[in-house]
Amino acid sequence: MGSESRTLGVLKETFPGETRVALSPEVAKKFAKDAKVLIERGAGLAASFPDAEYAAAGAELVDRAAVLASADVLLSVRPPAHDDIAKLKRGATLVGLLDPSRNRPLLDALAAQGVGAYAMELLPRTTRAQVMDALSSQANLAGYRAVIEAATVYGRAMPMMTTAAGTITPARVFVMGAGVAGLQAIATARRLGAVVTATDVRPAAKEQVQSLGAKFVAVEDEEFAAAEAAGGYAKQMSAEYQAKQAALISEHIKKQDMVITTALIPGRPAPRLVTAEQVASMRPGSVVVDLAVEQGGNVEGVKAEEILTTAGGVYVVGYANVAGRVAVDASTLYARNLLAFVQHLVQQTESETGGADDDILKAAGVVREGAVVYPSAA
Fold first, then answer.
1. Has 191 been annotated as catalytic?
2. Which of 75, 127, 134, 166 has its CA 20 to 30 A from that of 89?
3. Cα–Cα distance between 270 and 273 in angstroms, integer?
4. Does residue 137 have an active-site annotation?
5. Is-contact 43 74, C-beta < 8 A?
6. Which of the residues 34, 63, 83, 125 is marked catalytic?
């Protein structure tokens, strides 16, 4: 890791319900080749990584105070508590999913303590940063798990089954949002035998949806065709088009057994995709899973960490941290993202420019040299 970051630390996560850990034994072993790695005892237990595996990887198991006092680079999933920040040494660096747009007190506390910080969710979507893309690695698992959660609540089978007693029809699944989580949800629902449809505000997503064997749902008129040709980006549609699209979606939702919503906008509340009226139009036993509940939700009336049952018998699932329900794989992928980022960080900070002109560090940096630099021009 180089002279600038000799000791790397990982704490046991204290955020309510967080099962992930920032470092897997696999990645701890790679860091330990040229750095001192300190792991708080029990940090990986919720992700099924016992202390003995970290010890075998070359990490030192210590108490929380020792990690905070010694770490040059502190890796985290969620932001550490303010009490922990006050115990970090000046000049240390924090790297994690820091949710900076909703966490200004955290940034101020880090700046006051003289701790630099990088938010993994701010990494640019570029080829260079792809291996560090924690949002995508976690969204992949969230999309997969959303379908599993829906299937668990749903009181029927997913695939078509032909038996001596008759045929069971396949479940109909509608995925709203064809980003990383949405595409994985589509693929998972298809693997489980469902009939899958999907929609997205980006017309260019149609080809991706169809490549996974799902049907794309949209009002495909001349305006839609023009938007699809606009470089793959979403174009602001007319009020008339939006009304027609809303009517089509409402009619489509009525026929679905499962609806999975995946729309998130970084730094802003989640967009409302499904109204209470649309939920009420679904038949009893249907399931809606909202992956955006931590940012307010895509579904009207959704409650974080609850499964609501409407008067009409529709289940609305609002689990937060869905990726954390696949904690082993989520932690493994996240740790690999962090490994790539820290290696890049060290390489850049030890260069002649000190990383000042690096697009990745400029985009992810939120606190630098005692000052909050988020939101930055980058």
1. no
2. 134
3. 9
4. no
5. no
6. 125
Active-site choice (102, 104, 128, 130): 130
**What DSSP letter does each residue of 49-105 carry, written as one string?**
--HHHHHHTTPEEE-HHHHHHH-SEEE-SSPPPHHHHTTSPTT-EEEE---GGG-HH
Catalytic residue among 101, 136, 281, 348: 136
Q: Please tell me what DSSP assigns to residue 8.
A: E
**How confident is the model over 61-69, as a mean pLDDT?**
98
Residues 312-366: pLDDT tens digits? 999 999 999 999 999 999 999 999 999 999 999 999 988 777 777 899 999 999 9
Give the pLDDT confidence score for residue 376 in this predicted structure: 62
101 is catalytic: no
CA 134 to chain centre: 7
Write out the H or E segment, with its range, that includes residue 111: helix 104-113
Q: What is the mean pLDDT of residues 93-120?
A: 96
Q: What percentage of the chain carries pLDDT values higher than 70?
A: 95
The pLDDT, as a whole number, for residue 329 is 98
- Our answer to whether residue 250 is catalytic in this structure is no
What domains appear along the chain, each with residue ranges and CATH number?
Answer: 7-133+327-371 (3.40.50.720), 136-325 (3.40.50.720)
pTM for the model stands at 0.92
- Partnered with residue 39 across adjacent β-strands are 10, 61
Q: Catalytic residue at 136?
A: yes
Alpha carbons 281 and 179: distance in angstroms, whole number: 26
